[in-house]
Amino acid sequence: MLEIRNLHAAAGGKPILRGIDLTVKAGEVHAIMGPNGSGKSTLAQVLAGRDSYDVTQGTVRYRGEDLLELDPEERACKGLFLAFQYPVEIPGVNNTYFLRTGLNALRKARGESPVDAVDFLALAREKMKLLDMDEAFLARPVNVGFSGGEKKRNEIFQMAVLEPALAVLDETDSGLDIDALKVVANGVNSLRSQERAFVVVTHYQRLLEYIVPDFVHVIAEGRIVKSGGKELAHKLEAEGYAWLEKEPAAAKAAR
Amino acid sequence: MTGAAVAHYRRGFQEIEGTLAGPDWVRKLRRDALARFADTGFPTTADEDWRYTNVAPIASTPFRPGMPGAAPDAATVAAFLPAGASCARLVFLDGHFVPSLSQATLMPAGSFAGSLADALRRSPDLVEPHLRASLDRNQGAFSALNAAFFADGAFLHLPRGCCLPEPIYVLHFSSNGATPVATHPRSLFLAGESSHASVAEIYAGRGAGACLTNAVTEVVAGANASFEHIRIQAEGPRAFHVSSVLSRQERDTNYAARAFLFGAALSRNDHWAILDGEGANAVLDGLYLAGGTTHVDCHTGIEHRKPNGASREVYKGILAGRAAAVFHGRIHVHPGAQKTDAKQSNANLLLSREAVIDTKPQLEIYANDVKCTHGATIGRLDADSLFYLRARGIQAGEARTMLIRAFAHEVTERVRVQPARERLLEMFDARLLVAGEPA
User: Fold this and answer.
1) Residues of A in contact with B399 (CB under 8 A)
2) Is B135 within the bounds of a domain?
3) Chain A contacts of B425, Cβ < 8 Å?
């Protein structure tokens, strides 16, 4: 599904990713953990195609294609989804129109006919139930006046509608209370399947109690310094990130 | 040059004076107005009110007066009106009324919607007091030219309590042929006490030739009346458009002006709103969209003359290419107009590095218990929003369009009549395609 090799990226000339290697197969859930400033959100944004980062070295192959050659919208049309850490408020664009336009762009890319407003509403209602969202959200402008938790739910709702092949969740859990976290995790879990992969970027081990990963990777100073199973998350929870400094950064963990 | 321009219009006036509408008192006021114009000539950038708008291209073009011509076909006209042909409409071609394309059906008894020239003949008593004052008003060179040369315009009279269920559309169409033509539409809307109506004035052109539309519209809203006044300026690419609106509100009125300025090479749009009765509410919305080398100038003045009045002014601008825009918003609170509540904002979205906006609020407050606020912003399309839309599969071009429409939405959504709003959004999109090239 996704093969990242020796990925280097910089923002404004400042290196942030310094050689990421990661392979994700269909059906897998990978958790990316690490302290603030380690580069985990940058990795998520680079995968989605944010142009404020320059990829200076390395390759990313996604379903056999060179991902880095694709525009953000092409990546989305080919099944990549980023759940934003900070979902953007867009006054004047309503949620329904926004998401139906996105869905129909994806369908067009797949050679499918567009979904009309009536069918879309039925689909949206079904997915909203999954996330315990009020239908009134549909008529509101994108993320405007949403609480932090509502914004994150809206991200997962969008994911549920767009049904990506590879979903990258960028700190979707940050700032959520436990009830909202359960709702969001439940939404993610219901989408897990043999054909779909997840890269879950998180600062806190807590999320991984609800979304149980197959692999955990620890990122520090722009590199993956440790990889393991879900037990690695427990070690981080117990010991924090301080022990990382004692281990040689060269521990470019293979998986 | 001023002398040459004045001589040109003097000659033109002598040629056509005999054909112009109106009894003797109108004829006299036309001559007085021409004399006022001859005294000053066209304004120059030395005039404070015209500092950012150079009308030399208008002064130096030898426009011919508009003559009744072959009417545009119904399909051409329909493109500027809401879908569904049943709406009440008044159509003017090059300043002259076209009865065959107009229909004023569904007008309640006692009300009148039609040609001002007709009304002058048929109901002079109704027209005279307002038209006399209006023609005699000293409001600058363009208004004076209009007073001297106007051939016709829309006249609306709503008696007390008259309610129009649907808007009336007034379409001023320019043929924009090989010879540059000047038209001077003059419209008068009299909304009686407790009446309720919506009028949409649309200025549009057919060809690519040059023309001058020099329009004057006056609105008088009687006590407790509610009046929506939509204006859409979608003139041709080489058109010059100068318009002056004066609205006067009596007590407890609601007057909402919504100006959509999408066309013309150079346009100047003045609105003078007078809140002349206690508890009057005025809304002045505006949306201007300009690209290429277009110049658009919006001058508004709101006069709060009586207590407990409120005004809400939101002007939004979208500028691409090397377009230049001017917003000048004056709010004048007279002594005694206590408890006035006035809010003004002007927001601008620049789509290119070369586009220019000059924005200038001007508050003059002579009462001590009032709330007046104003603010101006200038920004670009938000990169985060653009990326967010693209990350959901929406192509960059479409994402930009969505964001630009979203910026305009605050003003466009307030057009409540759906067919009118839909047609307006179509015109907006069409103009955006031409004007809004990527930066």
Assistant:
1) 73
2) yes
3) none
The average pLDDT across B100-114 equals 84
Which structural domain, as residue segments, surrounds residue B134?
2-381+414-435
B397 in a structural domain: no
SS3 B381: coil
Does the residue B191 lie in any domain? yes
Interface residues on B facing A, Cβ-Cβ cutoff 8 A: 382-385, 387-396, 398-399, 402-403, 405-410
ipTM value for the complex: 0.94
pLDDT 10s digits, B299-324: 999 999 999 999 999 999 999 999 99
B56-76 pLDDT, tens per residue?
999 999 999 888 877 777 788
How many structural domains does chain B have?
1
Q: At what angle do helices B396-412 and B383-390 cross, to 10 degrees?
A: 120
Q: Locate tokens 């100047």: which residue?
A: B268
Nearest to B29 by CA among B114, B96, B118, B120: B120
Distance between CA atoms of residues B201 and B261, nearest Å: 12
Q: Which residues, 6+ apart, have CB-to-CB distance to B177 below 8 Å?
A: B207, B209
Q: What is the pLDDT of residue A255?
A: 37
In a domain, B388, yes or no: no
Q: Which residues of B touch A72 (CB under 8 A)?
A: 387, 390-391
Region B11-39: mean pLDDT is 93
pLDDT digits (tens, 9 = 90+) for A172-197: 988 888 888 898 899 899 999 999 99
Which domains, from first to last, does chain A contain?
2-246 (3.40.50.300)
> pLDDT-based confidence at B437, cuts 50/70/90?
low
Given an 8 Å threshold on Cβ–Cβ distance, is A98 in contact with B389? yes
**Helix, strand or coil for residue B168?**
strand
The pTM assigned to this predicted structure is: 0.90
Rounded to 10 degrees, what is the CA torsion of A78, A80, A84, A88? 0
- Separation between Cα atoms, residue B417 and residue B88, nearest integer Å: 14
Taking one residue from A and the other from B, the number of pairs with CB-CB distance under 8 angstroms is: 78
